[in-house]
Design a protein that fits this description.
The complex is a heterodimer.
Chain A (H helix, E strand, L loop, with lengths): L1 H7 L6 H20 L3 H26 L7 H19 L3 H23 L4 H21 L9 E2 L16 H24 L1 H11 L1 H6 L4 H27 L1 E2 L1 H4 L2 H14 L6 H22 L5 H16 L3 H11 L2
Helix pairs in contact in A: 1-7, 3-7, 3-10, 3-12, 3-13, 4-5, 4-10, 5-10, 7-10, 8-10, 12-13, 12-14, 13-14
Chain B lengths: L1 H31 L6 H18 L8 H23 L4 H23 L15 E4 L2 E4 H23 L1 H11 L1 H6 L4 H23 L9 H16 L4 H22 L4 H15 L8
Antiparallel strand pairs in B: 1-2
Classes of the chains: A mainly alpha, B mainly alpha.
């Protein structure tokens, strides 16, 4: 009960943040009605998916300070579970999603249990290695489609059970619900025991340990929650696009993108991942579409790499850090 | 048996190159405890420098070694003074993602300039020739690469252990403050570590151009091998990097022969994973 109250109460935030949050909600609610362009709607849904990933990554990477660069494998596992269950046994979305999320979480648990014996750079590199192993396995594993990927069979009529709709509006609102749930969870999380423990670990492991926090266990728990977020995002991704391949859901580039996005927005702050996604995703899609049309590729990645370098060098708390600094001054 | 023999020899030869790639990473990590994610991109820059000089001036590819070394030396020093110096003040997350940003920046810059195509050298002293030695076929390019790699490795090893400059570098690695009190310009030493890291990997890149494709994303593969190598050898250990490089070469070639070529890099990651779980300090780490 207390947890629910904590999740729903934003009273401890300054008024400006509450107003910003309200504007965000209203914007997301009216967006599908205010725009007719299908590209804009697709970008919006992408934005919501990345919000979900970013909010999850923020837990381990931002609050916990552990640079885990392997979100994509959790996204991929869940997406593949949903897709393959449907292809092989015609299992509806609502039944396969819990399985997918559980698989992603269990993988996170096992991996976290071993990998959190490592610290800092070692941990980061190890997570990259593991994601590359998964990536190669998925590319070469013929049983699950290999490099060709998996196509979800289409039903004849729009179908709630399989989450197949003709209009993107339904997907938009479903993604929005997921993001809202994630935000409420994070709102609870930052006031929870686990949240304080994780932040203590991030600022000093030695102090946290001397206070009696079981560092290893807290990190593993946070990593599992991150896996749940990624798993939800992956399951949604599979039904939204109706097609997945190892390059879209399993790729290291996705993990990198999630981390960079959160870092730019502000790792370790409540709104950082959303701000990051708000800047990067539209920029990525529109710039990518525009530059792709005139035949230049990769400039978009250069721009955010540049942003990340600047932010890492001068303001490691990201755009949110800049906002907070400006707010404190007057 | 013949297969095993030729895989072993080719693995050892490649291992010497991997050791040279890992050397720069080990130096940088040893001196300032920062992992250079952009290391593979330095290799790629070295490869393009060698490739473009060799084809542009139509000279012998081996003569491009100094060009690549100098370009990557400047790249390393530049990265230190423009970026890494500032990263060192921040938390670890910023350090990690900062060099990560550098990696992506250089990679996509190369992609924008050179395009995603694979390029290879066709003319050269070592290219396309091989000797038969019993059942084993040895290509000149791999043999020459291995010899030059070991020489370069030896020079750096000598420099670090026997010269005043190397001693200063080692002192900075052990304790920055104490080294500063002894009158060592530690800031310069850190810059030098990046320069040396760049130069060694530049040489490796120029050598690699003799028998490998040049393309913008080539760095990822080799940087992962290099990470695995330094992890196995012990981060910051130069002797460890050499022995681990040989082991990595053997794993790739023997593993690739018996398990299947598409999984040979997965084997590297798996090795790395096992090492880091069971012996996080590596073979020679401290």
């Amino acid at each position: 009960m207390k947890a629910l109250k904590d999740a729903l109460s934003f009273a401890d935030l300054p008024a400006s943040e509450r107003i910003g949050f309200a504007i965000f909600i209203i914007f997301c609610l009216i967006f599908p009605w205010a725009t007719k362009g299908s590209f804009a709607q697709a970008v919006m849904i992408q934005f919501l998916i990345f919000c979900l990933y970013g909010l999850g990554w923020n837990l381990i990477g931002g609050y916990g300070g552990q640079v885990a660069l392997g979100q994509a494998k959790n996204v991929g596992m869940s997406a593949y579970t949903v897709a393959l269950f449907m292809v092989w046994w015609d299992v509806p979305f609502w039944l396969s999603t819990p399985v997918g999320v559980i698989i992603a979480t269990v993988e996170s648990f096992i991996l976290g249990y071993f990998l959190f014996r490592l610290k800092g750079h070692y941990f980061a590199i190890a997570t990259i290695c593991v994601s590359l192993v998964w990536q190669q396995l998925f590319v070469n594993w013929e049983l699950i489609g290999g490099a060709r990927g998996v196509e979800l069979p289409l039903k004849e009529t729009p179908n709630f059970v399989y989450m197949q709709f003709t209009s993107p509006i339904y997907y938009h609102y479903f993604a929005f619900l997921l993001v809202m749930a994630a935000i409420l969870f994070m709102n609870w999380f930052r006031k929870s025991r686990l949240g304080y423990q994780l932040r203590a670990i991030s600022s000093s492991e030695a102090v946290a340990e001397s206070l009696g926090i079981n560092i290893h266990w807290v990190k593993v728990k946070a990593y599992c929650i991150t896996g749940v977020f990624a798993g939800m995002g992956g399951a949604f991704y599979a039904v939204y696009y109706n097609y997945i391949d190892p390059f879209s859901v399993m790729h290291l580039e996705l993990s990198i993108m999630i981390a960079l996005m959160t870092m730019i927005g502000g790792a370790g702050s409540m709104w950082g991942p959303i701000i990051g996604a708000m800047i990067l995703i539209p920029m990525d899609r529109y710039l990518g579409a525009w530059l792709g049309a005139i035949g230049i590729t990769g400039v978009d990645f250069m721009i955010y790499a540049f942003m990340v370098m600047i932010i890492a060098a001068y303001e490691p708390r990201g755009i949110w850090g800049i906002i907070e600094k400006a707010r404190r001054k007057p | 048996m013949e297969m095993l023999l030729s895989a072993t020899i080719s693995g050892l030869l490649m291992g010497m190159l991997f050791a040279l790639v890992a050397l720069g990473l080990a130096i940088i990590f040893g001196v300032m405890n920062i992992v250079n994610f952009a290391h593979g991109e330095f290799l790629m820059v070295g490869m393009y420098a060698a490739f473009l000089t060799a084809t542009g001036l139509s000279i012998e590819p081996l003569l491009t070694l100094p060009v690549s070394a100098i370009i990557c030396f400047i790249l390393g020093i530049g990265s230190y003074y423009l970026l890494v110096r500032y990263l060192l003040r921040g938390p670890m997350l910023a350090q990690l993602l900062g060099t990560f940003g550098l990696m992506i920046f250089i990679r996509y810059l190369a992609m924008a300039i050179f395009g995603p195509d694979y390029k290879t050298l066709e003319q050269g002293l070592l290219i396309g020739k091989s000797i038969k030695w019993g059942p084993v076929v040895l290509s000149y390019s791999k043999l020459g690469t291995a010899v030059i790699s070991v020489m370069a490795f030896g020079v750096i090893y000598w420099m670090i252990n026997r010269t005043r400059l190397g001693m200063a570098l080692k002192a900075t690695a052990l304790d920055v403050e104490a080294a500063g009190y002894m009158g060592i310009n530690t800031e310069k030493m850190r810059g030098l570590a990046w320069g040396l890291g760049g130069a060694t990997v530049g040489i490796a890149g120029a050598l690699l151009t003799n028998f490998y494709y040049v393309f913008p994303t080539v760095g990822m593969l080799f940087v992962m091998i290099a990470f695995a190598t330094v992890a196995l050898g012990g981060f910051g250990s130069i002797k460890g990097a050499f022995i681990a490089g040989l082991i990595m070469g053997l794993i790739i070639d023997i593993g690739g022969t018996y398990v299947g070529p598409q999984f040979k890099f997965a084997l590297i990651y798996l090795t790395f994973f096992l090492v880091i779980i069971f012996r996080p300090q590596g073979l020679f780490g401290w």
